[in-house]
Structure prediction request, 153 residues.
Amino acid sequence: MSRTRKAPALWGMAVALLAAAGALVSGYLTWHKVTGTSLWCAGAGSCDLVNASPYSELFGIPVALLGLVTYLTLAALGLYWWHRGPAVPAWVPLAVAGITAGGWVYSAYLTWIEARVLRAYCLWCLTSFGLMTLLLAVGVGGAAAALQREAAD
Prediction:
């Protein structure tokens, strides 16, 4: 695989892998929210308190489920980007950047809620926020690279 083919594909691979990890975390949180079972929190934080708070739902929909849908969407876009490499349409990296920006803002808001309102932290939620932060960096970097490549063509 040539260097020009490999570099754009790596952006997509990073998005796909990070989003898959996020889907696992959100899937775990969704399962426990829906079933009402206790979360494993490794003795670090108050996962059950956070997952049972009024902030864990948006219009009656578990926030973890919204996260799962977001991560699965990003994983699908990442796989497509990875597969297409430099032939990926510019809208794909731009969509990844936009979705991750929105996800990051909402995750930051929820982390603020944990710190300032609930005064309790969920290790899984913080892990999701970290993954979304990495996805934002990769998404914006990949979108910038795609736009530069398109401008050079």
About this structure: The chain is about 80% helix and 5% strand. The chain has one domain: 3-152. The two ends are 20 Å apart (CA to CA).
